UniProtKB/TrEMBL annotation:
SUPFAM superfamilies reported for this sequence: BEACH domain (SSF81837)
Entries under InterPro entries matching the protein: BEACH_dom (IPR000409), BEACH_dom_sf (IPR036372), BEACH_Domain (IPR050865)
Annotated BEACH domain residues: 1-265
Classification via Pfam families: Beach (PF02138)
Listed name of the protein: BEACH domain-containing protein
Keywords, in A-Z order: Repeat, WD repeat
Length: 329
């Protein structure tokens, strides 16, 4: 989130909404082993390059644009973050519901195009030449976006399947809260810690623009990039409105923050030094209560301390694996 905020992303503007990555690639298994690298998405590639066959088609189309100036050629006509993407995911929660209806001229979109299946959404992002969207923070924080608690009449698909709550992968056991819990654990996993810097390079870093972006197959429409056009210098009113409309509706790339390769994040169990600086270990007695959100036996705390709270002679620590520990002075 810190990078999103520094790059100008905000929850107050759906044209510049924070962007998070797809992390998990397995939406069919009954259970997930978060230590298995095969369940994760390749974070070194943009969504559009995850499917080699689709990428070959996009490269062929890119080469057919040889009549355009080099800076105006692009691989992806759509974007990984746009108002449409935000409203797609947030359909079931106001005020996004009303914004979606306004965008669709006073009604809900065709049920087959609504967000109703996480696995189906992932498969679309792997196969469609016009679908390269990433995720939003709510996929890691807000189970309500998957629940039709407002009982909106979303219709049914062409296969006569009612569109109601979002269909979740089997490993979430039908629980939106469990889905969020596993998403958060996956985001904090060793695999993601060791590879997230590649995704940061694509979205916020040196692979966002220039020769590095071409080599990484990470080239979007030129109007999506900050500073690509000076609106104030456009004298033709029709052209000006067309460009403004494109920028507002078809996605904006975050501000580029880093001009060189981002370092890898440290492993969760390598980032423990907080207590050694403030309290002596010989003064502490450690008790590890059951993990939050249920479903797991209590074990020793694993991972970095992400939050500290002191009450009287007791210090409470929240670890990155959501374990809460108390330390008596």
């Amino acid at each position: 989130m810190a990078l999103n905020l520094m790059a100008g992303r905000t929850f107050n503007d759906i044209t510049q909404y924070p962007v998070f990555p797809w992390i998990i690639s397995d939406y069919t298994s009954e259970t997930l082993d978060l230590t298995d690298h095969n369940i994760y998405r390749d974070l070194s590639k943009p969504v559009g390059a995850l499917n080699e066959d689709r990428l070959a088609m996009l490269i062929e189309r890119y080469n057919e644009l040889d009549g355009f100036p080099e800076e105006e050629r692009f691989l992806y006509g759509s974007h990984y973050s746009s108002p449409g993407v935000v409203l797609h995911y947030m359909l079931r929660q106001e005020p996004f519901t009303s914004m979606h209806i306004a965008l669709q001229s006073g009604r809900f979109d065709c049920p087959d195009r609504l967000f109703f299946d996480v696995g189906g959404c992932w498969r679309s992002c792997l196969s469609s030449t016009s679908d390269v969207k990433e995720l939003i923070p709510e996929f890691f924080t807000c189970p309500e976006i998957f629940l039709n608690t407002n009982r909106f009449p979303l219709g049914e698909t062409q296969n006569k399947q009612p569109v109601d709550n979002v269909i979740l992968p089997p490993w979430s056991n039908g629980s939106a809260h469990e889905f969020i819990r596993i998403q958060r654990l996956a985001l904090e996993s060793d695999y993601v810690s060791n590879n997230l810097h590649h995704w940061i390079d694509l979205i916020f870093g040196y692979k966002q623009r220039g020769p590095a972006s071409s080599l990484a197959h990470n080239v979007f429409h030129y109007l999506s990039y900050e500073g690509s056009v000076d609106i104030d210098k456009i004298t033709d009113e029709i052209q000006r409105k067309a460009i403004e409309g494109h920028i507002q509706n078809f996605g904006q790339t975050p501000s580029q923050l880093i001009a060189k390769e981002h370092p890898s994040r440290s492993r969760a169990d390598d980032v423990f030094g907080l207590f050694s600086k403030s309290l002596g270990y010989d003064r502490l007695q450690c008790h590890t209560p059951s993990k939050q959100f249920g479903g797991h036996r209590s074990t020793e705390a694993d991972g970095a301390v992400i939050s500290l709270h002191a009450f009287g002679d007791t210090v409470f620590a929240i670890h990155s694996d959501l374990t809460i520990c108390s330390y008596k002075l």
